[in-house]
Design a protein that fits this description.
It contains 16 helices and 19 strands. The protein is α+β, with helices and mostly antiparallel strands. The protein folds into four domains: 3-95, Uridine Diphospho-n-acetylenolpyruvylglucosamine Reductase, domain 2 (2-Layer Sandwich), CATH 3.30.43.10; 102-220, Uridine Diphospho-n-acetylenolpyruvylglucosamine Reductase, domain 3, CATH 3.30.465.10; 224-335, Alpha-Beta Plaits; 342-421, 2-Layer Sandwich (Alpha-Beta Plaits). It binds (2R)-2-hydroxypentanedioic acid and zinc ion (ZN). This is FAD linked oxidase domain protein.
Length: 464
């Protein structure tokens, strides 16, 4: 794109969006130009901030006429560089932040309709105000926005009970790459009328269309919550406890998180948060919730059995919601603590739940043999098979070498190289290596059908 074309494009967008709708000053656009981890610094031509679906559609049309690429962005909390522009100075960041309304909450029909720029926490709070639960939840929920949560099919802490974002989206409104608005904002639990096209956009990271609003599923809000931290000798014991929890607490389990000893050391060192239990190789943060009054008794029973059979060597069941929040702060502080420790190479992998202990052992062995000095900071959502096998690299070790080693072990266990964070820019090369040729070819056909000019978030998910 020539400088004149970029100049004309910016002028047209400014005219359409009016004051506050377009950012062009270096200092204004800087926060939109780089990801949270500061791994992918970019430089956009400008940041468009439409305030309605009609404005989004016009931005898309204006960009398309100029041949300019668009990079949709919500709260910019992603960990795979999927929402930031390249460094060409020609891409337009399309921030959904001004489309932040909650359009409707229906506590009887159990739905909430929100615009893409609504912060996830605000949507959760709106559900809680009418005594309902919006079950998608993760550490960045105070900044992440509904559109980005959907575009990345975010996972998080409660997937073991409520599934991924995909399972919690009932209806969707999207703007296609040619500016067409597709309104599928139906508040229906059951809808088998033709292709379920919304699934194409959920998890497509803004490469097939732009999510502008959604109908989300709400659930009952359990009255009682039991939260426990357990120290466990090894991942095999953690797996036995997963079965025990399934047997005794069943569908009341809403989080089953595995945390390495190193993770809690880092949270203590960099976040100043004290681990209330003694030193151990591994920990479990387990949470169950139910409206039945017998929950606490059942949870106490599980903790007692776990200690008795030696699968837990220490444990605490929170006595209050503040104490529970303290336990969660340990878990939710890992990402920031890891960032302060040094260069972490992140992996967001999944393997069958049963294979988690063997996977951890095999990955640890491979790391020790091939990349001496590297430290594994493993933690994650054991209850859904998703482990963040992050590696704190030793000097001279490349991300590529570490990725290939870890993902090779994942492959051996029939796993996935991205369970919940998506591909973004971070895993584009690794995706090609780990998906079958037929799967990549199909993805390219879908991309070509919906974005023939390649203007929607180019270079993300699929290589250009
Ligand atoms: C979590 O589970 C997030 O806390 C972030 O998915 C994981 O920092 C990470 O690698
Ligand atoms: Zn996670």
């Amino acid at each position: 794109m020539s400088p004149e074309t970029t100049h004309d494009l910016v002028a047209r967008l400014a005219a359409r969006l009016g004051p506050g709708g377009l950012l062009t000053e270096e200092s204004d656009i800087a926060p939109f130009a780089i990801d949270w981890r500061r791994l992918f610094p970019g430089r956009p031509a400008c940041v468009a901030r439409p305030a309605s679906t009609a404005e989004v559609a016009d931005v898309v049309r204006i960009c398309r006429e100029a041949g300019a690429a668009l990079v949709p962005q919500g709260g910019n909390t992603g960990l795979a560089g999927g929402a930031v522009p390249d460094a060409s100075g020609t891409q337009v960041v399309l921030s959904l932040m001004r489309m932040n309304a909650i359009r409707a909450v229906d506590p009887v029909g159990l739905t909430l309709t929100a615009e893409a720029g609504c912060v996830l926490k605000a949507a959760q709070d709106a559900a809680a105000d009418v005594n309902r639960l919006l079950p998608v939840s993760f550490a960045a929920e105070g900044s992440a926005m509904v559109g980005g949560v959907i575009a990345t099919n975010a996972g998080g802490l409660n997937v073991v009970r409520y599934g991924m974002t995909r399972g919690n989206v009932l209806g969707l409104e999207v703007v296609l790459g040619d500016g067409t608005v597709v309104d599928g904002l139906r508040a229906l639990c059951k809808d088998n009328a033709g292709y379920d096209w919304k699934q194409l956009f959920i998890g497509s990271e803004g490469t097939l269309g732009i999510v502008t609003a959604a109908v989300l599923r709400l659930t009952a809000r359990p009255r009682h919550v039991a939260t426990a931290l357990l120290a466990v000798p090894d991942p095999q014991a953690a797996l036995r406890l997963f079965t025990l929890a399934q047997d005794e607490l069943g569908d009341a389990i809403q989080a089953f998180e595995l945390i390495s000893g190193l993770s809690l050391d880092l949270v203590a060192r960099h976040g100043g948060l004290r681990n209330p239990l003694g030193p151990a190789g591994w920990y479990l943060l387990v949470e169950a919730a139910s409206s039945l009054p017998s929950l606490r008794e059942a949870a106490e029973g599980v903790l007692a059995t776990a200690l008795e059979q030696g699968d837990a060597v220490d444990g605490v069941l929170a006595e209050s919601s503040q104490q529970a929040a303290g336990l969660w702060a340990l878990r939710e502080g890992i990402t920031e603590a890891e960032a302060k420790e040094g260069r972490g190479v992140k992996h967001d992998v999944s393997v069958p739940i049963t294979a988690i202990p063997a996977f951890l052992e095999a990955a640890g062995r491979a790391l020790a043999a091939d990349l001496p000095g590297a430290r594994a900071n493993a933690f994650g959502h054991m209850g859904d098979g998703n482990i963040h096998y992050n590696v704190l690299a030793a000097p001279g070790q490349t991300s590529e070498a570490i990725n290939q080693l870890v993902h090779g072990v994942v492959e051996d266990f029939g796993g996935s190289i991205s369970a919940e964070h998506g591909i973004g820019q971070y895993r584009v090369t690794e995706l090609v290596r780990h998906r079958r040729p037929g799967e990549i070819a199909l993805a390219r056909r879908i991309k070509a059908a919906l974005d023939p000019d390649g203007l929607l978030n180019p270079g993300k998910v699929l290589a250009r």
